[in-house]
Design a protein that fits this description.
The protein is built from 10 helices and 8 strands. By secondary structure, the chain is an alpha/beta fold. It has one domain: 3-Layer(aba) Sandwich (Rossmann fold). Strands 1-2-4-3-5-6-7-8 form an 8-stranded mixed sheet, sandwiched between helices. Helix 4 runs parallel beside helix 7. The chain is globular, with a radius of gyration of 18 Å.
């Protein structure tokens, strides 16, 4: 295996930023070939990509399946080009891929690329993939903030909402169609099925206060099913916590890259 923590200079961000890259270069089935697939992982609000390395077994799960992991930082941007901040969407979707293609051999084919995230990153993963269905065959959200209009509607009652989103969306808290997952889902539904990314969402039944994450996921699930998207959904007991997200990642890898992997891991956990 190889794990790199890189400091890259970004024009979109006007600063350096951290990117983590895991390569399963000693996987027994790969030889000198590139990884079987690449999974981009996005972090949650107030955190950074180190969380995926420190609090989950993401590297071990990737090693089991011959996958590369790309774990960038997104600050508190919701992976937007911020109204009063840095251009994290442009960095993630334009500049970072261009830089990496000059540096390392990675599988960039659509059919080998998925993107997932937790909380803020769950929103970011779906937002990026639904804006770029030509790049990602799949996307996953774990406890994602999927209904931003619901959150923005609570701005007067919950002052913290305005504090979070004003730097991102501006003082008027305007959410454009290409950043609204409900509008993006509607647009994606007009594409042929083979051009639509698979969408996978998980949420804990107790993930409620203060932002109604469980209800946000319920409303998005209803919308996606109404549209007939390639959509799957799981919920079980849990809150906004790493034990839930680590398990969600196993299910996502099972669904996107390695059918049967989740059953293997569940048996391992049960035997301990």
């Amino acid at each position: 295996m190889a794990f790199f923590t890189m400091k890259l200079k970004s024009s979109a961000l006007q600063s350096t930023t951290t990117v983590r890259l895991y390569l399963p270069c000693d996987h027994k089935t790969l030889g000198n070939q590139p990884p079987k697939g690449m999974l981009t992982l996005l972090h949650g609000y107030t955190n950074d990509g180190d969380d995926w390395v420190n609090y989950s077994a993401a590297l071990r799960y990737a090693a089991d399946n011959g996958l590369a992991l790309l774990i960038p930082d997104g600050c508190n941007s919701f992976f937007h080009d911020m109204a009063a901040g840095q251009g994290y969407y442009s960095w993630l979707t334009e500049e970072l891929p261009s830089l990496l293609k000059q540096m390392v051999l990675l599988p960039w084919e659509r059919e080998k690329n998925a993107i997932c995230g937790l909380s803020m990153g769950g929103y970011g993963a779906l937002m990026v993939a639904l804006n770029h269905p030509e790049r990602y065959f799949a996307c996953g959200s774990f406890s994602g903030a999927l209904n931003l209009r619901l959150m923005l509607g609570a701005a007067k009652a919950i002052p913290e909402v305005s504090a979070v989103f004003s730097p991102i969306l501006g003082q008027e808290l305007l959410l454009t169609e290409n950043r609204d997952l409900f509008q993006l889902a509607t647009s994606i539904s007009q594409l042929p099925k083979e051009q639509q990314p698979d969408i996978f969402c998980t949420v804990g039944k107790q993930d409620i206060e203060p932002y109604q994450i469980y209800y946000q996921n319920q409303t998005f699930q209803q919308h996606a099913k109404h549209l007939g998207l390639k959509f799957s959904y799981m919920e079980w007991d849990g809150g906004h916590e790493w034990s839930f997200w680590d398990k969600s990642l196993v299910y996502a890898i099972d669904k996107f890259f390695a059918p049967g992997y989740a059953n293997t891991k569940l048996k391992e956990w049960a035997a301990k």
